[in-house]
Specification:
Distance between the termini: 38 Å
Oligomer: single chain
Structural class: alpha/beta
Order of helices and strands: HHHEHEHEHEHEHEE
Strand order of the largest sheet: 3-2-1-4-5-7-6
Number of helices: 8
Bound molecules: S-adenosylmethionine
Length: 216
Amino acid sequence: MSENTWAEVDDYLAAALLPPDPVLDEALAANAQGGLPAIDVAPTQGRFLHLLARIAGARRILEIGTLGGYSTIWLARALPPDGTVVTCEYFPAHAEVARANLDRAGVGERVEVRVGPALDTLPDLAGPFDLVFVDADKEHNLDYLEHAIRLGRPGTVIVVDNVIRGGRVARATDDPRVEGSRRMFAALENDNRVDATALQTVGVKGYDGFLLAVVR
Ligand SMILES: C[S@@+](CC[C@H](N)C(=O)[O-])C[C@H]1O[C@@H](n2cnc3c(N)ncnc32)[C@H](O)[C@@H]1O
């Protein structure tokens, strides 16, 4: 099995399960136009996050790592009319592209984009959030998990993306992004505040995976 097969199957699944979505296509095009890296979640994963938010009945969602707002659109669309998303982004240029994408997608009014290092903007937030999606600088995954728990309530769903990194997570490494996830997994060994699992994934974005946790 090669990366080509994973991508081919992802395309097949997306064609079968995801309706054509010019708004999301436009958002990705705007990201490319704005020079943003193509590190958004895959379409099937965006849909997964969307379904998860609906299953959880989420009304307040926190996202850490906005980029151009592709995953934010998926999440915002899962909300009831009075629901809100707060999304944190380091770079003003990314946030600007995201704001335009969110407005064009018709969800701008229910999304607040907080600009700056998330470790600076998160402490001012008050919970509870019903779902937290962590997808920023992987070095700080443990800090973000701590904030997610602080800002959660029993039942809050937490997803932390890119925690497998081509399988490198299983061994100590000098890659700070892998070590960020390893620190998080080590902390979870003795953490009785959440129930968690992690799933490995393959697809158009390669071999990776995510942590899924629920606050007790
Ligand atoms: C993987 S991308 C997010 C992709 C987005 N969730 C999506 O799927 O469309 C990670 C984003 O996190 C942002 N980021 C990196 N470090 C950050 C920090 N310390 N605080 C807030 N955002 C940060 C990056 O600038 C980048 O836009």
